[in-house]
Structures are given as structure tokens and as C-alpha cells.
Amino acid sequence: MIVARLLSLLGFVFFILLVGYILYTFSERRRNPRVRFRLSVILTLLVLALLSNAIGASVVVIDAGEVGVVFNAITGLQDTPLMPGMHILIPYINEVYRYSTREQVYTMTKTYAEGEVLGDDSLWSPTIEGLQVGIDSSTRYRIKPEMAPYIHNNFRYDYREILIRPSIRSIVRHYVSQHTVAEIYGPKRAEIQEAITEALRERFEPEGFELLSFDIRNVNFTDEYAKAIEQKQIAQQQAEQMEYVLQREQQEAERKRVEAEGLRDAAITQAEGEARAVKIRAQAEAEALALINEVLSKNPQLLQYKYIEKLAPNVTIMLLPANSPYLFDLQSLIGQAEQGRSVTPSSPSSEMPGGSTP
After folding, report:
1. What is the pLDDT of residues 299-323, one digit of tens each?
2. CATH 3.30.479.30 residue ranges for the chain
3. At CA 162, angle to CA 159 and CA 168, rounded to 5?
């Protein structure tokens, strides 16, 4: 492109020189009629000017990120585009139209001066429930270089208004109308976005455009529905708070119940243990009394012997009230004493009172 401009500039310089030479010659002839135009100079400057302009017009440089479409005034549109680099064309017959092959973004949003259209350009569409939602989106695409002649022949530079924008609007509305607001705003948002992306790709590919991505940037609601959603969220938060309080109270009640059951079980266990101990003690006492009763039944004088045994060994005289009965049968005691004196000292055993042996 710089070479073509330099050549064109050079041709313009030669043309200026030609005009200057002619004017200078006219002015000189007024003072000196003998001055003549030199045809060789005029022809040389004219040829150089035309040649420079022709060469400049024939040299076409396609920059990186561009593609050139050639239209021939005689044969018409050429099917082969010009790729980045320098090309030599027939001057004044071939005309080159340049198209950008770099990534382009078409944004439709509610935010002012952010999208392609000033003001609210969000794509409003009814859902399956009949509610209006606005979709803010960005579509990334680029021109396929080999399809540039087709685009030039069908859309020229108006492809954004003829193809891109109408395709996005129709496809987005088609898929939005098949879902509920909750699905669009919630769990199925990615699924809907993927479906729209595939549909746009199928629409763009045959027309010479490569779709890079489609992104749902935001989902907008009407003011009435936004207030309803806000109230619903507040109510939901309050319900969740009440549910949390209820769960906490239930947990506290469960803790107290478990604690009461533990105390009850402990009391029952303690009572059972005490009852078992009492029972064991009662059984032991009963068995002991039965054994004592059995021994006493066999040795009636054993009780008196035990009583005497408990007395102090130095006590020889006992005083009893006059009206009290004798505790022992004195006759039997005297008889036992006499019998004891008649027993030899070598005897290992002695008779107990009442004639029983210990």
C-alpha cells in the first residue's frame, strides 16, 4: 500500500511539473516571443505522470487480517480473492474491495452505548409462560477468506444488518420461547446457550461466516417481574431462616429427650442394682437365719451357751431382781458341773450344757 501511494504521489509530482512548465513557458513568451514550447519536455513529463499513476493503480497491497475481492469492469467479479501481500492488477479496469477477516463482535445489550445500537438493544422475547425476558448477548464471528467474493456478491458491507443481526434475533427468540423463566435464568442457561450457538453456526457457515462463540451475558426482566422475584427471594430467605430455627429447636428438643432418657435409664439401672443388692442381702439373711434355725433345732442349749460365752470371764455372781425368773436351769447347770469334774483331764472334748457336744 505504501508503494502504491508513493507511485501515485510521484505521478502527481510529474503532473505538477508539467503544468508548471506550461505556465512558465507562457509567461516567458510574453516577454520574449521567440520562446517556444519544448514538445519533448511536455511529452516526457506527461508520460512519467501517467506511467506513475498507472503503476500506482496497478499495485495493490492487502494487509494482514484482510482479504481482497477483485471486480473486473469487463469480466465481472473474480472468484479468487486476494490474500495478504502485494498484487499487480490491470489499472483502471480492476477494482479491489477489502474485507476484514479479523474477529468481530456483535453485542446486543440493555446498557446504553455498549452494543451496536444506542439505547436498549436487549433481545426481548416471550417465554413458554408468556413472560417477557430480555437477553443480553455477544456474538463473536469472522469472515472466511475464501468466501469473501460470495459475501461481496450477496451482502456487500451490509452483512451485519442483512444477516448477523436478524439471525441472532430469530434464533434466540425461537429457543427462549421454548423454556420457562426459571430454566433460562437457572440450570438450563448453558444448555440453551449451546443450542443457540449450534443453530447460529449452521446459519452462518453457508453464508461465508465462521461463528466463534455466542454468549448470554445477562437475563433482564420487566420491572414488575423483578419486584416479584425480589419479594419471592425475601420470602424464601425468611422461610429458610424459620426452617433453620425450627431445626435448631428440634435438635435441642432431641438433645433434651436423649438426656432425659439417659437419666431415666441411669435411674432405672441404679434402682435395679439396689433392688438386686437388697434381694441378695435378704436371701443371704434368710439363708443365715435358716442355718441358725437348723442348728438351734439340733442343739437347743446352744443359745444359752453362746450367752454365757459372751459374758465376761471374771463374772461369778449375777444379781437378778426378786420377781424375775431364772435365766438358766440351775439344777442342770449343777449337774453339768459335777459331771465335768468327773471327766479326766486327758479328754480332748467336754460336754456342753444340756448334754450336747460342741
Report:
1. 766 666 666 666 555 555 555 555 5
2. 104-221
3. 95
